[in-house]
Structures are given as structure tokens and as C-alpha cells.
Amino acid sequence: MSDDGERSTPGKGLVQGLAVTLKTMTQRTTTQQYPDVEPELPPRSRGVIALLEENCTVCMLCARECPDWCIYIDSHKEEVVVPGAARSRQRNVLDRFDIDFSLCMYCGICIEVCPFDALHWTPEFEYAETDVLDLLHSKDRLGDWMRTVPPPPAHDVLGEPSKEEATAARKAAGPGAATAAKTARPAARRPAAAAPPAKAAGEEPAKAAGDEQAKPGSGEAERER
Questions:
Q1: Tens digit of pLDDT for each residue in 177-218?
Q2: Residue 175 pLDDT
Q3: Is residue 43 left, alpha or beta, with left meaning phi > 0 and alpha meaning psi from -120 to 50?
Q4: Which of 42, 70, 147, 208 can bridge 103 by disulfide, Cβ–Cβ 3.0-4.6 Å?
Q5: What would the pLDDT profile of 51-105 be if each residue is shown by its tens digit?
Q6: Structure confidence at residue 132 (pLDDT)
Q7: Is the pTM of this model over 0.70?
Q8: Do 45 and 54 contact (CB within 8 A), yes or no?
Q9: DSSP state letters, 82-144
Q10: Which residues are annotated as part of the binding site?
Q11: Which residues line the annotated binding site for [4Fe-4S] cluster?
Q12: Cα three-residue angle 175-116-109, rounded to 5 degrees
């Protein structure tokens, strides 16, 4: 009996299952011979996360925004003596940057929120381990993945330049160079209003629209009545 109370045909489910099997047997297989043949991954595949240590400023944005809390960061401060400055400055030095890939869900939030492009996606996915504790990658191992980061796509020639490119071009041109606003074409001026045509000899000027109507109390209005 079905859920609707109707009696089903005996053996109908078996026939449907065999039909799916026969249909699959006639189709061409698409099995890839991995690992002998490397798979063709899409260009934006999400594999392991690589770290560019010199770009990290220990701002902690990636660790705070991570929904799985799988990023662990430790740092210390160092004094930097600046020639000519009244006092020395401090900077953060990265001591530990670990990502636990046994907890990571590959959402990419840490890469998106990083303001200095210290984290990058790589298409590498062959980092399986026999022990789950070995999936905790340190900053040295994350730095080794940087060699597998694909180059960024080419900039659209019809698109607007980025802020960094515009700033670099302005600095290279010098302070006296014309900016884009100065070199822009001026708006087209409107043509001057045409002068009224000259009156012909003996021609009376045209009456205004308000003068065509007879004023109440005038002689013309009395005659019309």
C-alpha cells in the first residue's frame, strides 16, 4: 500500500531500479585515473590556505572572523628606532600562525577580510594525514604553499584602474602633472540663442499673445457684444 492508500503494482520498484541500472550501463564512464592523471580543477578551486608571512601585520582580523575558531596567532612587540624621530616605534612580530584544517570549513572569510593579502587560496588538496593532529599547519608549512598559488587574473583593459595603480601613476608623473579631472574634455557649450529675424519694410510687429484678447471695457469688446 502506498501513502495515498492505493495498492501498488507488485515488482514496480524492482523494475524501476533495473531500468536505472541498464541506463547507467549504456552510458560512457567518466572515471579519471587519479593519482596517475592529475585532475583538471577549476581556476578558483579552494584547496589549502597559504600564508605570506611578510604581509601579516598581526591585526587578528582573520582569527576574530573565523566561524570555526581554527586560526591561532601569537605575537610580540619590538621597538624600532626611526632616524630623526623623537621616540622609537613599536611593531608586531609574528611568532605563531597555525590553521587547524581538521576544523576549517573552507569558507574563505579569513582570506576576504585580510587587508594586506597575507592569505591566499591554492588549488593543492593533497595534504591528507594518518593522524588528525598533523592537520594543524604552522606558519612555516603555510608559507611553503605559497609556491602553488596561481597568478591573479589579468586586469580588464576596459575597467577602471585600482587605487594603488592610480596613486602610483600620480606619484610617478610628479606634482605638476595634469590629473584625470584636468585632462577631461570640457562640456559642450550650448549654442547662443538665435537673433530675431529683421523686420521687412512696412511690416508691423507681431502682437503679443496677451494683446490678441480684447480687454473688458474696450471698444472692440463692446462691438463683439
A1: 655 544 444 444 555 555 555 554 545 544 444 444 444 555
A2: 76
A3: alpha
A4: 70
A5: 999 999 999 999 999 999 999 999 999 988 888 888 888 889 999 999 999 999 9
A6: 94
A7: no
A8: no
A9: PTT-SS-EEEEEEEEEEEETTT-----HHHHH-TT--EEE-S------SSGGGGEE-HHHHHH
A10: 56, 59, 62, 66, 104, 107, 110, 114
A11: 56, 59, 62, 66, 104, 107, 110, 114
A12: 140
Residue 67: asked if its preceding bond is cis (omega within 30°), the reply is: no
Q: Which residues of 63-77 are buried (b: 16+ CB within 10 A; e: fewer)?
A: beebeeebbebebee
User: What does DSSP say about strands 49-51 and 89-100: parallel, antiparallel, or unpaired?
Assistant: unpaired
Selection from 172, 149, 166 nearest residue 45 by Cα:
149
